[in-house]
Amino acid sequence: MLTRVKSAVANFMGGIMSGGGSGADQLNGTDLPPRFPYSRPDFLGLSQDEVECSADHIARPILILKESRSLPWATGYAEVINAGKSTHNEDQACCDVIRVKKKVAAPITPSKNSSAKRRSSLPNGEGSQHKDNPDTEGIIFNYWALFDGHAGAGAAVVASKLLHHQIAEHLQEVVDVLRNSAVLPPTCLGDEPEVGNNTRTLTRAASLRGGVGVPGSPSTPSTRFFIEKKISHESLIIGAIENAFKDMDDQIEREKSTYNISGGCTALIAVCMMGKLYVSNAGDSRAIIICNGEVIPMSSEFTPETERQRLQYLACLQPHLLGNEFTHLEFPRRVQRKELGKKMLYRNYNMTGWAYKTIEEDDLKFPLIYGEGKKARVMATIGVTRGLGDHDLKVHDSNIHIKPFLSCTPEVRVYDLLENEHGADDALVIATDGLWDVLSNKEVSEAVTSFLSNCDPDDAHRYTLAAQDLVMRARGVLKDRGWRISNDRLGSGDDISVYIIPLLYGSKQT
Question: By C-alpha distance, which of 356, 393, 335, 332 is closest to 149?
Fold first, then answer.
């Protein structure tokens, strides 16, 4: 175990290691075809030669959109490859506008006297309803996504091609409910929904009495023995996104037997529909809204430190996952054998503070979470705790699987575009951790606000130029001592991808 740990610890500075899979895993990686070939985002419109030129780890060219209107809302985008951390740029991006239509039911042959046939026979379609026109059915949503791959770009590429389709499929199941915004979603599909403004919660006594009216009279509602929760349309959209992440993770696992889908990836997406932004994060990328110069965080990073209690609790409930080589307890440093019987500071899953415990033999095992900050790792292997993929990831040179500790469930935050007035300089900034490792929320906000204020408000290309400026600030300039940014700080050596999404366009289109 000690040899394995030393080997894993040696990889701390080099990023997330591949996980040392079995021989079968390595064979599959070389023999199976990729699910999708490696490329840069489709909206960049790069030729194969340009893709190869973008992989220059020495020059690190910044890629931007060729056409200012190639993305919805005049969204700005820029990216740059890492300084040699991996062969490819393991970040991937996707942006699309998707119409979700109701699922087409099996056709029913109408009878001679059916009302449907009578309506269709009227001149100019008179009497036909809006819902009968397939071109006007459904709901449109705007979609932006960033995926930060590790141990290969395979999972990130797959997620960039398919996740938005998974979301559309889940929204398709509730599109009729979402379109009927005047009433609350029914508890069971097919039931008559209750009008939201006229509902009231019945007390248990009133429920048993059947509400108001004389028993047996026509005005007496049916007897109810339950009280229903009122579910919002917003919650349905959140649930569709959460299930889409789960299905995407399951699909990657299924298809690994057929395709070479390497590694895993974090996922950060923004969906705009029905006047609201839904920002969903599984990983350590970050999104912020800049509105009137103020910063509104729209995500939180999921790392071994931020999810310490969840990871410890799982390990405590299922100790077999630790392979008898790790301890779920946290100590300020590695426990030494000479400290057996002494009291040392520790934390368990139920604690935010610290206490002392007497050191026992089991406490000498390697800690579940090792290191701190950007160097913190789960089982000395991986530095993120949420994302997609990583199904074959194991502790180096062992048979201990790490996937049980990694969640694909995103955190979803909602921003109502109609609650605030938005100017041309208000934006949603979405970026991978390559940006946030070296720039704070405040620095990003000040940089974007300053840049946009010096641009023509009518210039749609201003947002891409602002994204380029951000990437340049985080990458820095190559000097004798490496890439340096302002105040001679160390620049980001990681892949960097940035969207700047103007909120003014979203407010106009809601």
Answer: 393
